[in-house]
Amino acid sequence: MKRYMEILAFCMLFMAFFLSGCSLSPTNTGVLIGTNLALSGKGMSYSTSTERGIELAKDMVNDRGGLLGRPVQIVSVDNHGKPEDAEAAIQQLTVRHVSAIIGPDLTDCTRAVLPNVEAVKIPLISPACTQPDITVDPKSHEVYRYIFRAAYIDASQGRAMADYALKQLHVKRAAVFYYPDKTYAQGLAEYFRSAFAASGGEVPVYIPVEEVQDLTKYLSLLQRENVDVIYLPGYDDWTIPAITLLRSHGISQPLLGPDGWNGPKMERDVDTSYLTQVYYTDHYAGHDASEAARRFSQAYYEKYGEWPDSYAALGYDAFMMTAEAVERCQSAEAPDVARELEKTIDYDGATGTISLDANHDAIKDVFIMTFKDGQPELAATIPKDRQTQ
pTM of the prediction? Predict the structure, then answer.
């Protein structure tokens, strides 16, 4: 009898432990948000900042009580900047039963995961991907149900820069050099050229350039064509050397670029004397842009001891848009969160006031940044209604 009672007590203790383990599972103790970012390898300079913005947002939400009365937990997977690893990350996050996924930042990684995300029915919000066809199938033209973004699209920033060049810099003839193997650069080049020409400008020089040193072949062409502005769409690993080469060869015309230029990195890596008459589009205009931007930047500085860049701000906004969707629908179930994200209107974020359109794209102002004494500074704001003209 004594032996029987010992066995019974052991079984009851085991069951209590088992049940307590079930109750402590992530889905019961917290709302899980996944991240699929390049925390190493290609794209690390962008995604490390994005992750910091997400972590800050998570801390702020938890400080005010979490979501649905539960703490928020981040499930982070490093995709190493590789499309195949980004796909594998979706599977890992699906097994963890996350309510939503933030990332990837990079276009090729985001495009690689589209079928997977639609299949598992978990909303994915890309903080920084600006390629238009990540939210809309380019063949069927159907909107992906579970893909969203916190960034404006390339069409918006290409048109915004053309608008600024024509109306504020008063230039008429532009050259466009772009890296040919990047969909990002190709798309931006065409959006800028089309908008510039449609508003009365001319683009007599439009050339793909793979090796930065090859730009020296076209210096005399710039003079012959009387070009008075140069657009350089691309990521920082190509454009920073391009800017340095052009300036070191005496090219003094205004140089224009997109969000991929990475202003804080340019501040560190480009000679200050080369940063005059340099302008680029960006999502975040610094802590003076709005009260929401000030709150974000101050909290970021207190946490990390430095001021945020645009990728940190986009990560923060992507998380907060997701958190607001969870609160509005009062559910952490992924399909519910996706349906609520579609309804995002006038979210007041660090990167501006964001509404999602029918394509799940962020509609918001575009900031034109320049440099003053080698540091990024807001030059102009192009309102959302001027990006479609």
Answer: 0.86
